[in-house]
Specification:
This protein has 104 residues and is α+β, with helices and mostly antiparallel strands. It is built from 3 helices and 4 strands, in the order βββααβα. The protein has one domain. The strands form 2 sheets. It has a two-stranded antiparallel ribbon with strand order 1-2. The protein has a two-stranded antiparallel sheet with strand order 3-4. Strand 1 and strand 2 form a beta hairpin. The protein is elongated and about 60 Å long. The mean pLDDT is 81. The protein binds zinc ion (ZN). Zinc ion binds next to helix 3.
């Protein structure tokens, strides 16, 4: 495979707006972890634990292990430029704020 024309250190793009982020520029990494929540409540399975266990094993056999793992836990590292980082922080602090806040 042919390599890209050498630009020195790797350029990156902002995950949100696609802006090019040259080496040495101010960037922010957002690490997102998504995993299944557990509220401490285990529902008594219908037909008893044995039956549920058998069903579960059957499901596991039929599933792609990678898919199964993704369902339980996924991690993302997203590169953001300064302005997208500011917006993201704003959205996290005010998730149900009025729409259109960010229209300039
Ligand atoms: Zn951006």
């Amino acid at each position: 495979m042919r390599q890209n024309r050498s630009r020195g250190p790797k350029w990156q793009n902002c995950f949100r707006c696609g802006k090019e982020l040259p080496p040495g520029s101010l960037t922010y990494v957002t690490q997102i972890k998504i995993f299944a929540g557990f509220d401490g409540v285990l529902l008594e399975p219908e037909g008893g634990v044995d039956r549920q266990l058998k069903q579960l094993l059957k499901q596991v056999e039929q599933s792609n292990p990678e898919d199964l793992e993704k369902e339980v836990y996924q991690e993302f590292n997203l590169m953001l430029c300064k302005s997208c980082r500011d917006r993201l922080v704003e959205e996290i602090n005010h998730p149900w704020g009025s729409p259109g806040r960010f229209i300039h």
